[in-house]
Design a protein that fits this description.
This protein is of the alpha+beta class and 156 residues long. It has 3 helices and 8 strands. The chain has 2 domains: 32 residues; 107 residues, Lipocalin (Beta Barrel). Strands 1-2-3-4-5-6-7-8 form an 8-stranded antiparallel barrel. A hairpin with a 2-residue loop joins strand 2 and strand 3.
């Protein structure tokens, strides 16, 4: 019996025909394409210059929703690709994480569990020179929302 030789043209035609591709091969091609396209995403942005602007010790004037004012100090230090704030709200023993991109300051939602209460803290603001202005909310586990507005001045 004589074997038919497969020409490269016939092979390419067979392989490029969607009908001839098995579902497994289609899945592999989609997976490889996804990997290639995801590797083309831009690398994680470097915000070290923005972080350097905000790092330091600040004197804070914190006004709550009842217009009660409290003054205290916080220290902002670099933490990975963001910052952490020690003595946040003059109540936190654990640092609160935040990010700075350009002059936009963000405190993503974070949950803290104590012995008798769980709270969620989140907020946002902006940096203008040596002044950091931001609002934050403390949500308690019994659904109270404590809203604060802060003006923080960097100490020299």
């Amino acid at each position: 019996m004589k074997k038919n030789t497969l020409s490269s043209k016939t092979l390419i035609t067979s392989l490029t025909s969607v009908d001839s591709l098995s579902p497994l091969l289609i899945g592999i091609l989609l997976f490889v394409t996804t990997l290639i396209l995801s590797s083309c995403d831009k690398d994680e942005e470097d915000f070290s210059a923005d972080i350097a602007k905000v790092v330091g010790t600040y004197t804070v004037t914190d006004t709550d929703e009842d217009n009660d004012i409290e003054n205290y100090s916080v220290t902002i230090t670099k933490s990975g690709n963001g910052v952490q704030i020690s003595n946040f709200g003059d109540i936190m023993y654990t640092p609160v994480k935040a990010t700075i991109k350009g002059n936009a300051f963000n405190i993503p939602s974070q949950t803290f569990k104590g012995k008798t209460m769980t709270i969620i803290i989140y907020g946002s603001g902006s940096l203008n020179g040596n002044k950091l202005s931001f609002d934050y909310t403390i949500q308690t586990d019994d659904d109270y929302y404590l809203e604060h507005t802060c003006e923080a001045t960097k100490q020299q």
